[in-house]
Amino acid sequence: MLTPRQLYETVLRMRLLEEGVGVAVQTGEIHGEMHLGIGQEMVSAVMGQYLQPRDALVSTHRPHLHALVKGVDPVQMLAELLERDGLNHGKGGHMHLFDPVASFMCTGIVGSGAPIAAGYALHRKLVAQGGLTVAVVGEGAMNQGAVFETMNLAAVLSLPMVFLCENNDYGISVPRRLSTAGQLVERGAGFGINGWECDGVDQRALDEAFSAAFADTRKHSRPTLIVAHVYRFRGHYEGDTDHYRPAEEKETAFRDRDPLLVARRDLVGAGWSDERIVALDGEIGREVSDWFEAARSLPFPDPSEARRGTFVDV
Amino acid sequence: MLTPRQLYETVLRMRLLEEGVGVAVQTGEIHGEMHLGIGQEMVSAVMGQYLQPRDALVSTHRPHLHALVKGVDPVQMLAELLERDGLNHGKGGHMHLFDPVASFMCTGIVGSGAPIAAGYALHRKLVAQGGLTVAVVGEGAMNQGAVFETMNLAAVLSLPMVFLCENNDYGISVPRRLSTAGQLVERGAGFGINGWECDGVDQRALDEAFSAAFADTRKHSRPTLIVAHVYRFRGHYEGDTDHYRPAEEKETAFRDRDPLLVARRDLVGAGWSDERIVALDGEIGREVSDWFEAARSLPFPDPSEARRGTFVDV
Amino acid sequence: MCESAGASDRRTGAHLVAAVLMEEMRRDEGIVVFGEDVGALGGVFGATRRLQREFGDTRVFDTPISETAFVGMAIGAAQAGLRPIVEIMFVDFIGVCFDQVLNQMAKNHYMSGGRVRVPLVMRTAVGSIGSAAQHSQVLSATFAHIPGIKVLFPATPGDLRGLLVAAIRSDDPVVFLEHKWLLKSRLVELPFNDADSPDSPVEPAAVGKVRRIRDGSDVTIIASGWMVQQAVVAARELETADISAGIVDIRSLVPLDREGLASEALRAPCALIVDEDFAGFGTTGEVMASIAERIPGEVRMARHALDVSQPAALVLEEQVVPSARSIALQAKRLLRA
Amino acid sequence: MCESAGASDRRTGAHLVAAVLMEEMRRDEGIVVFGEDVGALGGVFGATRRLQREFGDTRVFDTPISETAFVGMAIGAAQAGLRPIVEIMFVDFIGVCFDQVLNQMAKNHYMSGGRVRVPLVMRTAVGSIGSAAQHSQVLSATFAHIPGIKVLFPATPGDLRGLLVAAIRSDDPVVFLEHKWLLKSRLVELPFNDADSPDSPVEPAAVGKVRRIRDGSDVTIIASGWMVQQAVVAARELETADISAGIVDIRSLVPLDREGLASEALRAPCALIVDEDFAGFGTTGEVMASIAERIPGEVRMARHALDVSQPAALVLEEQVVPSARSIALQAKRLLRA
Ligand SMILES: Cc1ncc(C[n+]2csc(CCOP(=O)(O)OP(=O)(O)O)c2C)c(N)n1
Ligand SMILES: Cc1ncc(C[n+]2csc(CCOP(=O)(O)OP(=O)(O)O)c2C)c(N)n1
Ligand SMILES: [Mg+2]
Ligand SMILES: [Mg+2]
Question: What's phi and psi for B277, nearest 5 deg?
């Protein structure tokens, strides 16, 4: 389990990164849609402990936190988000980050990452044994055919693959109860896939789920499912007026389900004084702003880049 | 429950129809792929009792038996299969039979009928209450994303819809164990859909499943799932050499799981003499050959039909 | 003029769509509207705003993120007698439900020998607004290459209304492409705004007819959707260089007004075919071929369309997505050639 | 000549495909083959026969009827370092997994800024064999309209081998269209059979080059896939009417040899573009446009392609699917015009 300090640091780093990205949207530095993971940090923070370099992770339209814990270079990623000559030379952008070194990718099509994750898992199974693949999905994505098909395929082929469902109760404006029948964690049962459900702002619960699921998948080379319950603190995308969620619901969540506040509470519980925390805040703050600075110092992609790379050959 | 005579008659009619179609493939009267339902008759025969005219049914690439019990005119259907100016003027053919009067249709794309069935169910729910829709799928189709999505959609919208899975253990050459994880009947559970599993050559078991599921769906306007276990007696399509199924498996099934033999046994059990059965055979035989004769007496579609009907308007 | 008209008019294309849907739903009880976020939210672009409040959640409702299931449901419902209007949020998502479009929606009427009808409208947002390759596509030719669906692509506020009404009242399945900039832009700020009185009763527009947007004797710019608006700006720029550019709006990809294209093209010695969809095997080729087979050699033609996927960074997107500037440039090049 | 050659040679195109796969799998351990019924059965057309027996069921295996899942799996596996060859039994089924093709397979290399590669081959059977609208499509232009995938369409036994090897060794995703008649026909009975020694080691064919199949001075027939074989028969028939018809095989839709098309077309005063895919917004338009923009007015062109969906009854199918007879007829019409 992460120490209180480790957890706090990790969550704070994520928070500051996402906030900085949000600002860059407001200032017009970033165009297009932007989905932030604020409120969902603890899930990735805890998962980070169980990920190995040989594992692969396929993320969603809300990918930054997963990228960070999977080892994607934050400066390269930020440069890509900031439309610089970054991780993918400005051609992927926020929803299409590809890092073959970290075995990380994501896709902007809901649910479509899961089948691809199965491909990484097949590779692990056939030629890179011991590694596994994580397919991240939102609870909304759990209604997409691709995800079901992949669960069955992974089960029938015994692929080493963890399905991580970040359940924030909304797919854009649509609340889960209007879109999703039954219990998410039971959706694996029809395929004989074991599932773990947990509170996504409870470090211990997350730890239990991740350690059990990852161990099961690694040991038996078979799929598992984790459903972690979180709240999305921002609108679906930056600029979303977010009128569809009741003010009260939001207030409660902001108060009780903020991973940063929870982690901070643990830090205080572990005996950290206010000053020490402020000092740590400053340290992490500098680290993250250095990332931004480094990313911003990178050039914009060369215009010729736009027409390059449709094919490898030719 | 159907009387032994009713069951036998219905199964025999279906058998003779399918056999006649098989012959027409061999003689070159029918071109293209042809999937027969021989061995699976009892499922449709029993379902027939529970179907009402206001219900709709969306079938698969193996549709003839469902069409018959849903009230599609056999002569019109046969004419269509025989590439005459039939039910759909020769443009649909065997896998694309459309009868809006009987509220019947089918599709040649595995799994793709289920979403359309949901549309008929939506119509029933909104403006034709009391009716329901049956979506037929094979067990192979149960791995297609469309079917899962539709289960969730039907559950979340409370659509009056029965999913009927005819499990013949093979999708073409692929045995269920290689393609399908978990238990089919449990696949509804993740959506809170009640399921019934039954032996598809056991009239009583079928009756229990159909009466319960149809009643549940009609009463509560909500989806249900029936999985009926059958054996496909022919190759996947006419012409399939069918080497992939063990000879022994086939022999056992031919002996023990032939709906016609089972129904005949019941008839004998109900006191029917051989002569009476032979007479009945003759009667049904004439009926079915009259269908074929009537169908064959219809003209071929007019060549101009080919370019007609891409659009209603224009 | 109505009170909200004039420079202070904040209405966008999305308002027009919502108003048409409102009016048509009042007229025809069979119309149901569903898709992701079309209910309480009123659509991510606001094009279904207030509909659920007005008609309740049996006629206007949100769906799961299950495009295959709900597009199929629209098809079945249409065949059963309803008139569904379904929204695919971004056209880029069509891949996850493409079978329902390709093999069911488009073919059922034909395959049934005319016995079933599939009167539905699939509205979907298209075009580049800085969101990279999976949220910027147009895919107009992908649809137009499928026999059995009509494909309408309004370029102007007037057509956004008129073609939408025509789509809704058609007994055929219609894919209705709404350009994001048209949905988002204030009407009064559009280069070409023909919605002088957006509150007047809507008349269905004639489907399958090109429309001349501007006369011109040096070059004819043939385009659809947002590219028509860009062409208007380009034509003004060309005018300052003493080049007279006509503009023809395709409007309806299926049915395509091939005769109209050829006769319009005859009005100038050159034609530039502009498209925001990918160039290869697409609309530019179809338009050029339609002209070439009718009036071979009479008009010098060139095309200007997207030739790669859409890159994420705006500085790169601007390199590849046709715009007023690049259209003017290409027109000049064609004239010089 | 090998023992099985000659008139008694029962080998079909499917045998050639299987032999190429066998050879390539021996050469490259990274190749895995999966799809529906490709294992024990060896493919519904027999194009993967004996592979599972040879390489075991970790390298050759059956999948559930879950095209989205297994095509996606192929993409991921390719990106991770394997070289998957995946089969979509009939191209008509592509709709159920189209997102994986459109937004992932095609775009990942570009979107990644070149950082990932997607070296996979998607083999799929196309064309009309009397099975109606959902089992007869070609959809070549549907793929060709997507930036980022190569689209190869062999017309002859030689290309079935040579292009397949080229596809397998390419580092890009390739859609490989196998016409059912080419898979099913005995090679020795084909109108045009260039597989003189089908047992010789296979050389990768040059991708992106048209091929002249036949010289002709009156009309050039430009076609792909099975239509090339039909054109050969048509050309013979035309010869008896003293018409000299050349034939150009497109072979590779993407990359398309536009220059080659134009220069080949110049060899006769007319060109007939033939396609088994749907006509509108398809290959015929792209070919005509490519010629028209290069040599405007030099060649009189017409197209002959499917203009509706495929009807079920053979008597109707024959009305609409181009054949040797209809090609000859259209060529004559073009010459008379
Ligand atoms: C196939 C597809 N349909 C719709 C969308 C539009 N869309 C983007 S994110 C999203 C909601 C996803 O909800 P969820 O999976 O719960 O993830 P969250 O945004 O809550 O993290 C939708 C509908 C899409 N990108 N892809
Ligand atoms: C989407 C799609 N994939 C593949 C096929 C080819 N195909 C036709 S029937 C079939 C097997 C179907 O198996 P099942 O659902 O069990 O029905 P059964 O044939 O056993 O009745 C397959 C793979 C198809 N028609 N559609
Ligand atoms: Mg969510
Ligand atoms: Mg089966």
Answer: -65, -45
- Three-state secondary-structure class, residue A112: coil
Residue B16 has pLDDT above 60, yes or no: yes
Which protein residues touch ligand 2 with a CB less than 6 Å away? B 61-62, 108-110, 138-141, 168, 170-172, 232, 236; D 36, 65, 67, 89, 93, 96
CATH for the stretch D211-336: 3.40.50.920
Ordered DSSP codes for D65-129: S-HHHHHHHHHHHHHHT-EEEEEEEEGGGGGGGHHIIIIIITTHHHHTTTS-----EEEEEES-S
Q: Which of C95, C102, C254 sits opposite D99 (nearest CB)?
A: C95
- What tokens does A31 get? 């165009």
The domain limits of chain C are 5-189, 211-336
**Which numbered ligand comes closest to the C-alpha of A39?**
1
Q: Which of A123, A124, A156 sits opposite D64 (nearest CB)?
A: A156
Size of interface B-D (CB pairs under 8 A): 128
Which residue type, as a one-letter code, is found at position D166?
A
Query: What pLDDT does A313 receive?
Result: 83
* pLDDT for position C255: 98
Q: Do A153 and D76 touch (CB under 8 A)?
A: no
Fold for C5-189, please state it.
Answer: Rossmann fold (3.40.50)
Three-state DSSP state, B46: helix
What H or E segment, with its residue span, contains residue D276? strand D270-278
Q: Where are the alpha helices (DSSP H) in chain A?
A: 4-26, 41-48, 64-70, 74-81, 113-127, 145-156, 176-179, 203-220, 247-256, 259-269, 274-297
- Overall average pLDDT of the D59-69 stretch: 98
Which among D15, D109, D135, D179 is annotated as catalytic? D135
pLDDT of residue C194: 93
Q: Is A26 helix (H, G, I), strand (E, B) or coil?
A: helix
Q: Is the pLDDT of residue C5 over 70?
A: no
Among candidates A88, A115, A313 on the partner chain, residue whose Cβ is nearest the Cβ of D111: A88
The 8-class DSSP code of residue C118 comes to -
Angle at C15 between CA C13 and CA C16, to 5 degrees: 65
Summarize pLDDT for B223-276 with one digit per residue, the tens: 999 999 999 999 999 999 999 999 999 999 999 999 999 999 999 999 999 999
Count of Cβ atoms closer than 10 Å to residue B283 Cβ: 12
List, for residues A197-237, the tens digit of each pLDDT value. 999 999 999 999 999 999 999 999 999 999 999 999 999 99
Q: Give A61's contacts (C-beta < 8 A, 6+ positions apart).
A: A33, A35, A95, A106, A107, A108, A110
Residue listed under structure tokens 């429950």: B1
Look up tokens 């009239």; give the residue. B203
Q: Is the pLDDT at C331 greater than 90, yes or no? A: yes
ipTM exceeding 0.85, yes/no: yes
Q: Which tokens go with A130?
A: 């011991």
The 10s digit of each residue's pLDDT in A81-104 is 999 999 999 999 999 999 999 999
**In terms of Cα–Cα distance, which of A96, D85, B2 is closest to C310?**
A96
- Quote the pLDDT of residue C3: 40
Q: Which ligand is nearest to the CA of A173?
A: 1
Q: Among the options C109, C135, C179, C304, which is catalytic? A: C135
Q: Is the pLDDT of residue C235 over 50?
A: yes
**Residues B286-314, mean pLDDT to the nearest whole number:** 96
Question: Which CA distances in Å does A289 have to A15, A17, A37, B297, C327?
Answer: 12, 8, 18, 83, 41
Residue in chain A closest to D70 (alpha carbons) equals A115
pLDDT above 60 (res D1): no
**D69 in A contact zone (CB under 8 Å):** yes
Show Cβ contacts of residue C104 under 8 Å, excluding neighbours closer than 6 positions. Answer: B107, B109, B112, B116, C72, C75
Q: C135 an active-site residue?
A: yes
Give me the residue label for tokens 């993407």.
D254
Domains and CATH numbers, chain B: 4-296 (3.40.50.970)
Task: Tell me whether residues A149 and D114 touch, CB distance under 8 A.
Answer: no
